[in-house]
Amino acid sequence: MSFLRPPPQSAPLKHHLLYWFILCALASLFLSEVIALSFIGGSLASLTNTASNLLTTQAANSLASSIVSNSAQLFEDVLTDVIYAVTVLSTATGDSFRPDYSTGQEPSFYGAPESLDNPVVQPSNADHFPGLAISTTHSVWILAGYNETSNGKFTPPSLNSSTTNTLNQAAHVDTFVRPIYKLSPEVLSVQIGFEDSGLLKSFPGTGDNLNLGAYDPRTRSWYSAAVKNQATPASYAITAPYLSAFGRGWLVGTAKTFYNKVDGSLAGVATVNTKLSDLSNLLESYTYGNSNVAVFTADQNGFMLASTKTNFNYIDQGTPNYSFQNTSNPLITDGLWNQIVSSSSKDINTLTSNYGSTTYTDPQTGVPYLILWKTLSIYASDSAAKSQTPSWVAVGSVPITELQSIVDSTTSNLKKALPLSIGISFGVFAGTTLVVLLLVILFANQVVKPFQILSQESSRVSNNIGNKDLWEGVQDKNVSRSGVDEMDKLKDSFYEMVKRVREASLQNQAQRGDVIENKTFAKKSVGQDSIEVQSVLDLLPEHPPQYHEVFPQGRGGPSSSRPQPAQGSFLTSS
User: Fold this and answer.
1) 561 assigned to some structural domain
2) Contacts of 561 (CB under 8 A, 6+ apart)
3) Residue-number span of the structural domain to which 90 is assigned
4) Handedness of CA 299, 303, 304, 310 (dihedral sign)
5) CA within 13 Å, CB half, 56
6) Is residue 372 part of a domain?
7) What's the whole-number mean pLDDT along residues 356-360?
8) Is residue 179 part of a domain?
9) What strands lie across the sheet with 355-361, from one edge to the other?
10) Domain contains 325
11) What is the DSSP string of 367-430?
């Protein structure tokens, strides 16, 4: 770990700069890498811990769109087709009462079950009539008040003028019924009940209808529902599920009234029946795993119209309607059902995406589920549409374990991707480190460069000491810039100093020359003066003359009787 130690004090400045720059860069990059790895690990842990909630929220949208929404849409489409079919049927039947309507006589089976022994066509949905011969070319008539004979057979009552007239007028309706039945696989049977006579026309024709006994269509739920909701001639009614009187199982009927085109009076009710099991089979294509979807009436009863997990084969008379209470895996409790119904109130616009969702634990099994629901945009009757009260709600359930498998798969993929992410992270770290090191070295060289130049110039000055020119080889300025303000200022100051010192040196040299020249001249002048002085000195005696030699007596000098010097005088006689 010696490479982590700082360079010694005597090391070049470049080494110090490189050491501290690289140390800071590596520390920053290492911290960034730690943060990145912590983020990756924390994100993975957070995703693992919260994936159920996140994916549950996403599933609430995606599954509602796939399972519930698609199932609801499919259910609505089927009902729409059935409504269209019953509209055509009721219109055709009503037209039979027009006096100007020319009808061709078509045979119908009335009181002759032997006519059905050799049916013309065996339809694809003949399994709904097990063990029975049916005809898809003609219908069968049933008149209320069949009489049971001693041999156990039922004989139809005698026809009167009213029933005979109805038979003759409505015989041609089979022309419209046949394509409806053949083109609509969800249609089990078509029935037409007449108000005045109580006659029932049923298609396809089946022998068991003839042996039913007393049957009055005017007392049936589908007939009553249509009569109750005949607000307009276009009114229709979709019934709650009911058990077929002919042993066909649990059905839902779409009924519509038709009217006598002569006097406008109610002539009867036409209905198209669909088995709940057939509707349930349609929904299975939108489920997966242990998920389930069902359609209920959107009321407190919660009657079941279709379910991918409910068996509707219990068809004994007196069996109560299947409802949300008959569900399993999960069992829908009253509390959950109230939550679903309350969110499907009349304030909801059924034409929009009316989704609801919640997490729910099955009280029987303890298995947690994601529950999804959506109100259907189609109404059971005109009165329901007028009040905008939802008629049905599609409810889907998905075990949380199904979602958890998605979570586990996602987490597994993330864990597999973790080494790659870490490898990429380290690769980026190494590449970034290399780039940073190169930039640090470049920057350090740029910073150290002016110091190197100044060091070289200083060395030249030092080496020139004692030579003729102290600044030989030293430039006045250097135009290269380091990009660092302090370094450039130092260089500028140094070369400014060189310039000024050089100029001062040259000026001093000039002044020194003048001084030397003046000194030489002064020396010459002093020499000449000294010669003249020496000539004068040479004329002087070596000793000064005596007094009496300078001033002899009798020659005008002082008298010989000169005064004596005062006491203390420095003069003495010779």
Assistant:
1) no
2) none
3) 61-404
4) positive
5) 21
6) yes
7) 85
8) yes
9) 304-307, 292-297, 392-399, 368-375, 355-361
10) yes
11) -EEEEEEEE-SS-SBHHHHHHT---EEEEEEEEHHHHHHHHHHHHHHHHHHHHHHHHHHHHHHH
